[in-house]
Amino acid sequence: MKIAPVADVKARLSAYLEMCADGPVIVTKNGRPTAVLVAVSDPEELERLVLGHTPRFVALLAAAERRIRKGRGIKHDAFWKLVDKKRGR
Description:
By secondary structure, the protein is of the alpha+beta class. Helices cover 55% and strands 17% of the residues. It is built from 5 helices and 3 strands.
């Protein structure tokens, strides 16, 4: 893992993008961590990363979890049958 000030990252972004293939690069501003450069090797990994930091999606998952805990969820097989039905299968 590498730690670098934002000014250096701005000046040598391409080099830091290559470096993050070996591990995360912590970017600091005024000596404090503000961002992380992380290599993405798989499109699904990128999708999970983005969705995990999307407030609307996180709220949707939290609401679904609350419904499940209250016993208002549906079984796995029933869910997929419903999906197939909506897709016209």
